[in-house]
Here is the input.
Amino acid sequence: MDTSKVLLSGGLFYTPPDWATSAHAEDSPFRKAFVVSRECLLETKWHLIRFTSETALIDAKVEVPPFVYLVYYLQASRKALVLGYGKHIVDAFVKLLATSNNIGVLEAVYIDVQGLVALVCSKPGPYAVTYLHARTSGLGSSLRSLSFYGDDVTGASLYRKHAESLLVHTCGLRDVYADKRTSSEAIRVSAQGKVSFYYGRRDELETAVKALNFIYKAGFLLEPQAIGPRVPMSDEQEIEQEET
Amino acid sequence: MAQFGRKTTYLVLDSTDPKSRRFYVSESLGSILQTWNSTTRFSPAHSLAGCEVLNETFDGTWYLTFLGPCHPFDFIRNADTTQASVWFTLGLYNVVHATKQRVAHDKLCEWIRTEGMPSEVWEVQDGVISNVAFLVRVPTAIDEDVRSMVVNFPFEKAASALKPCLLEYLPLVSAAIHKSSVAEPRFLRDVQQFHRVVAMTLGDSMNELDAMEKLNLLTVVNAGLSHFCSQTFSGTSPIAESVCHFWSHSLLGVGMASLALWQTKWFIEDRMSQGAIPDRLKAFGDPQFPPINIDMPERDDVWKKDYLHTVTKDKLPKDDVVRGVAYFSGRDGFRSSRCTLSAPLASIDACNSQKWNLLTLTHELAHVLTDGCLGVLCPLPQDNIALEKACRLLRDATTCSTRLDSVQRLFLKGVISVHTLFNMDGQQTGQSQFELTPSSLAEAIMKGARLINEVITHVLDFKYFYGGASSEYVSSIWSSWGVLPRGQGRVQEYLLRTLCALLSNHIGRTDELGVIRMELINELTNISKTETENGYIALALSQLNGDASWEVLRHRVVAMTPIVLLASTFLFSEALAAPFSHERAVHSQSAKDGYILTKCVFDRERISNRIRFLLEYATDSSPNSAASMWILYQLAFATEEGYGHQ
Here is the structure.
């Protein structure tokens, strides 16, 4: 494992439409007491937000107040990608953000991982599956779940042979054009909207967003209470770093 | 745990007068050369780490024991090394134990006798050998039919052109058989089978008409056997009476390196034999295997099935893979023929490095596999009946009555595609109409045969031996090409072969050609960071990055696509590939694909998968004699069961 990289994990959330506004607006969702500072990551639209928590989020035995933590935040249209050095930090931030803006809870964007993996298998394109974790279907308690790891999991006959018995809920994707040595996995996503990737260089933030855009354009980000067949999104609604 | 010391020293034997032989150890090659005389021989060695002895003149009374093949861990578990000096060598006597203590020496001899291990003991007084004793293995029985074939070969009636070579071959193969039976019985099976094949090919050798063809065979065979015998059995008892032709190992030979080479060969051959791919391909000619539509687009499921595995093993003939003689050669490098296989001499002292490790053997043996498959698919250019049938298959897919017909049709489509899209002089002819006749098809086959053979071999090597791992494959083959004297002149062909191999992983992917281009650029860019000795990598990158040069390459890859589809769909089977990568000695939390071995250290662990081991450990950028010896030992002592003795 490359020890110069850290794992960023968090999730994709739906936000109110008016959140996609200027950072300096009076009614910015971030002008709240728990936000210590907010800065833009140079040449990107990512925000680095430091916030305080009332309780220690990493190790209560070691940490002393004030409990200040960092999250990475990217807003695009009605969705926000929130990442931190631990999903519980993100959960705490999102909860604070929601309650301080009187909206109850920020809903996670569910992802049709099953469909995503099936697409990559049947129509291989710019991404390959590097990891998948699945529950089994039809095998009872004999074999409840399994994980696959590799450069192109859905290219293996072992996967294809048993695909119909697998209920994939988490998968990792890699960009097939990227150098495997420096970029073995672009992003890992789960059906509940969890997102994670290893971060060491600035361009890895862009790589992760690009992968999410691929998932979005293919129509696998599920609208709240979505039912029926998925519909690929149009380009205007792409998760871009341009403000709308 | 046993560990090699990092420094090389030399074990030297010479005579200052015919009746006395002197033995000493020196780390200075210069001083050895200074005192070199007509009897001098030497071999490099590594001490046991922690008690390295690089120089020793053996003043006083010493007891020296040469023994082996013996695994270093087994040795230190059973021998007293506290009152001794120990060196490890590349000869079949791979351990040298020297002590002044009679008790320690006797204890060692008792263990050696219990194990039945071949050994030779020297009593040395002030550096001069005063007494020699042997413990040799009871010879393993030689098959009676082989003995009879050698003894009763009709030498006197042979064609005159063949007699001199036969006069060399018969004693040479006798020596190989008898020395194998005494020194290392694992060689005996293959040497005997080798002779059966050669004898069958030679027949009675009386016919003057085919004498030249047999002469060519005998020339290759004699060179191989001669190298093998000298390299492997020099340095076995009586040590002082043999000389290895490989002068830097002239005292003790390179029997351990030979054993490592043969172990690797056996590993590959056994799996190829189990897979029986050419036989399974031939079995597709049975009517129970219906024809397949090979005109489907690349994304169709027809290209994703494992067809070879549908042939059940009990329906296959019991033929075995022809097992040849393997040896090291400075002139031949890596090369395979029908009954010989060679590796470069440089691999002996540089097996740890990517440029000189033994992984290229997989390519050579993949050629044997390819030749077997093409023997089933490719009509002989002089066989008009087969060519006419081939033309019918090409004209009308409905004439395919079996799966074999469909596969052959795909192969022939590939032949025509290669022939029409670029001619064999390397000029791009563009799309042109191919007038299909038996003679034009024969011409296309002859012109395209070598390159098609190489592309199929590369795909099979990539898929079976490298498991489709592009990084490992590209760095391995491009490192090995860098040492070829004509490497730079063939960069474009190497690029084509590599791209075709990579394509087999991306059949049906959107922009598959763009993906493999990028993949190869990434891999070669990584290699270029360490490969600075010649400019062939830079040349390759410029060809990939340049638009015009890429367009030529892209065109050629497109022309080869039917051949890649053929190899990856009908000559490759994931199920049959499993034994090629199976390893018994795997552990969790390993950074080395399941291995937890440390270079130059020996414990009770034994590897089983020689190829997988080389992929993980023979990746250094520069040669190192201690690391190379460690790798050769690991290969030589590999077992099918893996792990070690309890």
Observations:
- The radius of gyration of chain B is 27 Å.
- The longest helix of chain B spans residues 438-465.
- The first strand of chain B starts at residue 2 and ends at 17.
- DSSP finds 22 helices and twelve strands in chain B.
